[in-house]
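Entry 12.
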Amino acid sequence: MKKYLLLCLVALMPLTLLAKRQPKPQEVDSLGRKIKTGWNFGILPSVAYDADYGFQGGVLSNIYYYGDGSQYPEYIHSLYIEAAYTTKHHGIFRFNYDSKYLIPGYRLTLDATYLPDAMCDFYGFNGFQSKYNYNWHNWSKKASDPQYVVDHPEYTEYRTRVFYKYKRDLIRVAGDIEGTIYKDLKWNAGLGVLGYLIDDCDIKMLNGKNEYDPAKQNWEQKALRPDEELLYDKYKTWGLIGNEEKKGGWHPYLRGGITFDTRDKRQGPNRGIYTDLFFTYSAAFNAAYGQQAAAGYNHLQLNFTFRHYVPCFKDKNGIDRITFAYRLGIQNLIAGRSPFYMNNYMNTLFIQRVYYEGLGGGNSVRGMMANRILANGFAFANIEFRFRIVNFDIGRQHFFVGLNPFFDLGIITQPYNLDDLVQLHTNGTYTTLQESVAASGENYSDYFTTDPKDVYRPHMTAGIGLKIGMNENFVLSADWGMPIDRQDNQKLANFYVKMGFLF
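Predicted 3D structure (tokens):
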């Protein structure tokens, strides 16, 4: 615990250069702290950890312009640049701009992101309907000890560390704008493109200098077996994933909706409501890697989100010490067909974070494996208490430390009809998924449950978060999340170190 706190404090000591004039002593906010003015440059190592992506190393810069400080802690311009890579072969290359003042009277957000991922998580369709077998991808050095394997025969079930993975590169370019209808009621519009480049995992690259030895058992060596069929390969064989979507595609989209926002501030609000309702139309003008046109995947989605921040306790200085915060949301397909790889992307009116993966993982249901829920439609809830423990200054920078116990939930609202997918993608060769699985020589019950109620069974997690913030806008977050059901994660808990509040 101490080493993580030390890492957090070191990471939050930026190289700060203040341009324009400095605030005078009498220029303070409602909490008695000096108001920030002019430019504030922060250059930081991009050091983070995500249980699904591994340790992250790189560099980032968040540049704020506060002008004369009259709107502090609100900024006039925000520029965010990041380049990083993780130990699980996931890259982040991102530029983001946000301002309410570049176009007077309108909020503008621009984002350009490239996210190469050599091992993207894939646990099958319909949540609990797809069984998860931890032993199939859990390798340990202890497996090289024959006696250990005798005492722990589950290691002989091991197949490959990437059994629940596939290769996916995501390119995202987006522009969103917001205008005022009346006071806190806003209209929103946006356009962009999502490019998915999908393939099987590059086993040779992942093995590196390690070579697979056919003379040994799988569980005796860390090297990946080149001819091992992954779950993603099996889904293609069974007809659950069609030829026109198996390599990805390019999807330009248009988005429009309304928002109602009474929050006292955007980052870590203490009171107010934020709710949005919007539609996203995504086209498919061509598929990746020269595949046939994916016009059959034009589709329309509906999103609704409700966030509420309730102040519970103020100290004698008027500082909010406890806030109850919750977020409810739903994303449903209302027309057309959506390719499987787009159904774990959570649509948003404004791109403020790197990841919008769902459901599962540090950006949606904390403690659950990333992308555990994959279906046409889903709903989710995040509930937490935010305790502001201490405020302090280092130099001219204002810091705070907080704790956030939380409870997260995800549920499927629109499941896949697996038999219909098989009939569609095999041209009627098989009428049921069980027939297709049996024809491949596999046991259906190893991969799927037979109880239809499992599809709608809620996925739940609980945990606690640590927040260290600077100048109210820059927040380092560390969350520990634990699954309620071991089918969502065999590990006791997942740990995430990220930027900002989840919502």
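Annotation: The CA atoms of residues 138 and 188 lie 45 Å apart. The first helix runs from residue 2 to 11.
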